[in-house]
Amino acid sequence: MVAKLIILTFALVGGSLGYNLFPDLVENWASAPGWLLNPVVGMIIGAGFFYVISFQAIKPIEKLIQRVEKAFGQLSIAYLMFGSVGAIIGLILAVLINLSLIALNMIIISDVVPLIVTVVLAYMGFQFGTSRREEIRRFFTSKTSKTENEDVLDRKEGDSFRKYKVLDTSAIIDGRILDVVQTGFLEGTFVVSHYVLKELQYIADSSDSLKRVRGRRGLDILNAMQKYDAIQLEMDDNAIPESEDVDLKLVHLAKKLDGMIVTNDYNLNKVAEFQNVPVLNINQLANAVKPVVIPGEEMRVMIVKNGTERAQGVAYLDDGTMVVVEEGKHHMNERVDVVVTSSLQTNAGRMIFAKLVNDQKTLNDRNDGE
Are the CB atoms for 129 and 148 separated by under 8 Å? Predict the structure, then answer.
């Protein structure tokens, strides 16, 4: 079907050129027969000539059409629609400007500049329509169709609030995002890119059993969030050609939505901060809400493994905080009373340093005796 359309198009173009140009060309030929001056003859000759040429052009044109179809197939309807509207507005502005330029009747300014203005404004309109489509959509959304909560969110949007939270693969697999949202500490609309969904599916289909379990857990978390009525979860199927890496695609998506990234990935956190994209890190939240321990506070822990130096023993609190106990190596797998000496906040979490209560009491008795 495509090949027939290409042949027909070539024949029509050739016939049109032959009808309009062939008589003028033959007119300069002194010994040309009179019947060649007939435009209809020129149309037939032009159509036949281009008909023969069309067979050589079918394959290149078909390949070009397939590439265009593939490129447009990866774009969402909303992307194309807003881009087209923006391009049309750009063309309208170009026509208004070009009327003034053509009226000047000056070389280059009236001939070349209007073409440049048309191309530039059409491109700028397309880019504006695609990059600002969410803002345009919210602008034309009727106030009556919005819920009361959405109105509150829109009023709160600003430097300290972003309505859209773009979920990273690591945050979904971790699973704590569901608990955090259910408690009401996060609000707004959570966005899952189709690139993240593909990555989760790839992990769930992995031959590695551990990765497969993690991938399936991530898919279960998404299904649970989708079924939870209080959570607004949206899928984003827009193509993001700016980068091949999924993390960078999420950064570009957050920029387009004027949103934030929710992640556990330390590297993604740093990349997003470098590009001025706000980040919500679940690990940082977990560290922030851990109980604060004060030097001198006593607690009871179980020594579960050896430390790295000075006969240290290592224990863990219920929230996973590591407790390094001096001389704890001699009390392996025992519950002991310890007193906190100091704490250290690291990228991996909070570490607590402690001594055995008996050793601390002995040291205090010595100080009192002196």
Answer: no
